[in-house]
Amino acid sequence: MMMTGGAAFLLGLPTLSCLGYEAYHRVQSSAVVHALEKEEVLEQADYLYSCAETEKLYQLLLQYKDSDEAEFLWRLARASRDLSLLPDMKAEKKKQLVFEAFEYVKRALEKDDKCFAAHKWYAVCLSDVGDYEGVKVKIGNSTIIRDHLETAIKLNPKDATSLHILGYWCFAFAELPWYQRKVAALIFASPPTSTYDEALEFFLKAEEVDPNFYSKNLLMLGKTYMAMKDQQKALLWLTKAKEYPARTLEDKEVHKEAVDLLKGLE
Q: Are 141 and 127 in contact (CB under 8 A)?
């Protein structure tokens, strides 16, 4: 997104006079963020996120880790998670960031349970934590993850990312390997299930809400149509994924996977 107050952003400070800024800190608790400062910082944060400046974004938001504002906390959770996904991240640091992200988003949800983004990132971070706690825990958490995604969508039906993630959840359960199905059957009286049709519905809805918003959604549409044996539509969406401008590392990975899958369809 484009932002106003460009000079303030370049200085790395909210647009408050130095005197005003210092006086504010003298009279306010450090956990309370002045409305003007909050607006400026969130604007900077969203700009850095749009530019994929992960480390700068993390450092900016880390200053607000003790905040009572859900808007800061869920963004910090997302930034912690994004930092953990950087390719040169050491395993121990990655794990630390994943668990930190979950703690931040838990607090965001405690502060504001009507915040759709807090529900969305709670679902994502809970899934990440499950990667360290084994298949049984991960599958056990799956219904909680779906519940939070559905809540996020109810709170904001126009959020394409929530729709995409729920589509991904459906896709994962549609193609769940047999041994994981057995684990699920041990945990639940009625294990979570889904279909490619259901996954397709969410991926298409995400695209309808915000066309071309995310390379991975284009890829998943292609993969879902492949799983449904619809080669013509799979070709269409995989080609879109291949041609998507690669701005991030994930876009580059999507491009490579789309190219490989297209070769198999030729």
A: yes
